[in-house]
Amino acid sequence: MFETLTKRLSGSFSLFRGRRELTSDNIQEGLKEVRTALLEADVHFQVARDFCTRVEERALGDQRLTGVEASEQFIHAVHQELVQLMGPEDATITLAKPGPTVILMAGLQGAGKTTTCAKLAVHLREKHNSKILLVAADVKRPAAVEQLRVLGRQIDTAVFHAEGKTPPEVCRLGVAEARRTGADLVILDTAGRLHVDQEMMAEVAEIAALTQPDAQILVADAMTGQDAVRSAEEFHKRLSLTGVILTKLDGDARGGAALSIKQITGAPILFVGTGEKVADLDAFSAERMAGRILGMGDVVGLVDQAQKHINEDEAQASFEKLVMGTFTLQDMFSMLSMVRKLGPMKKVMGMMPGMGQLGDMDVDERQMDRLEALFHSMTPRERLRPQTLDVARRRRVARGAGQPLAAVNDLMKRYQQMGKAMKKLGKMGMGSMIGGKDKRAALAGMSGTGAMMDPSQGKGGMMGGLGGLLGGAGGGMGAGMPPGMAGMDPSSMMEGANARGSSATRKSGKDLDKKKREKAKAKARRKNRRKK
Question: Distance between CA 22 and CA 74 in Å, rounded?
Fold first, then answer.
């Protein structure tokens, strides 16, 4: 998401490279680029104009930084104003005491409202350890009630519906059921339309009047741009929205809704949907989102993901094996599995500093799937003792994974390079530099600091990220990274799967064949001597 906006903003930053200070004259060129980038991202015209005015005031006024170059001064001003534009409210829903807390979910049809109800239920249950009741009040869309029931079974949450009742009556009875069963939270899934109309608005207003919800949340499709902002305005007039959830931010969202909706409605963005799974709902942080838009990544979010999905004990054991140079293909496979737990590779790469400037990143998840297939095609003994993988065994692994021999040879080459790199790090004493819980972050090649950087400067230094696993897809990712999975480049590994293999790979295979033939000849000579 935001790839185009990030690329255009990075271009505006480069205009100031080499200039010692900002002036009222030279800043106009950069502001023109910023304004154009915002308008192309479908940001409201008035919002874009006011934003550029505030950036100029901050960059040249009392809040300007001292002792920094013009590009850093301009980036800082844009970053701070983006934070103010989208935030800085925390993503929280105040719980009612005594309960139950009633949350009314509204929005147009197709925005992902029903799925978001289930996502929000999972998030709030994990955060507050609450008992939740979902109320299916969308009787307009075919199978909407059944969809919520299926999601309820999937997340082990009760779903209430009353046949033959109107949506306001279903919601009223649902709140009463929540009180009777002792539920802490009740989430109302209301009906939507393809566009805003008076019938829908009257219905949702009646539901609000009957149930007196503690939170009235709009679910908006981020891919619709200004349409999402206009519908938010209409809902806000009837409901007095307390927050917004933006969905489909994992798609080709241009960013207009995220940047405009808070300014136009005054309702803060509480959560963002980043995928189709029920766990793909993230608390919104204006500062972290501003960093991602500017190509600075979201290191804090990436480390949070690592700490959430990567087991600390496993990470520590793998880290020690890496540094000591005793790791095997099984350890390499385990690390790949850990990294994949962080989510889709394109999403993970978007959270890494410096990646936004690369524009559209074509990350093929199938490359990672093919890499896993190679590991699965090996026996446990072969993964634990890579030296046993002779030519015959490699051919069998390749056939089992449906790939050419060159892919296996390339994997082994990367494994050996990785071993050499880790031994060097061990000799340098890198293992003592990172300790305790930080090993989970270190395995992913991440630092928890997330210091601000100029995204237009270089691609290596701070990009570290995910131990080179994504190196081929991101470009220049191995440079300067902490000890992790350096040198493991799945894109390079998979090149052999779509071609006949590199000359180095073919040479490696020939060398192994030659050794095997010499070994067979020596065995035959010994056999002949015994016969004589």
Answer: 8
Yes or no: say if 105 and 219 are a contact pair by the CB < 8 Å rule: yes
- CA-nearest of 82, 76, 29 to 454 is 76
Report yes or no: 404 and 398 within 8 Å, Cβ to Cβ: yes
CB-CB contact of 408 with 394 (8 Å): yes
Please check whether residue 132 is in contact with residue 183, taking contact to mean a CB–CB distance below 8 angstroms. Answer: yes
Secondary structure (H, E, C), 317-342? HHHHHHHHCCCCHHHHHHHHHHHHCC
pLDDT tens for residues 86-139? 876 666 788 888 879 999 999 888 888 999 999 999 999 988 888 999 999 998
Q: Judge contact between 86 and 258, C-beta under 8 A.
A: yes
Tabulate helix, strand, coil % of the chain (nearest 5): 55, 5, 35
Q: Which helix (H) or strand (E) holds 380?
A: helix 380-384
SS3 for 191? coil
Q: Which residues of 305-340 are buried (b: 16+ CB within 10 A; e: fewer)?
A: bbeeebeeebbbebbebbbebebbbbbbbbbbebbb
pTM, two decimal places: 0.62
Kindly list the structural domains of the chain, giving each domain's residue range(s) and its CATH number in brackets, ordered by start. 3-86 (1.20.120.140), 101-294 (3.40.50.300), 302-501 (1.10.260.30)
- Pairwise CA distance, residues 102 & 192, whole Å: 19
Helices (DSSP H) in 155-193: which residue ranges? 167-181
Q: Tell me the two tokens of residue 347.
A: 């999403």
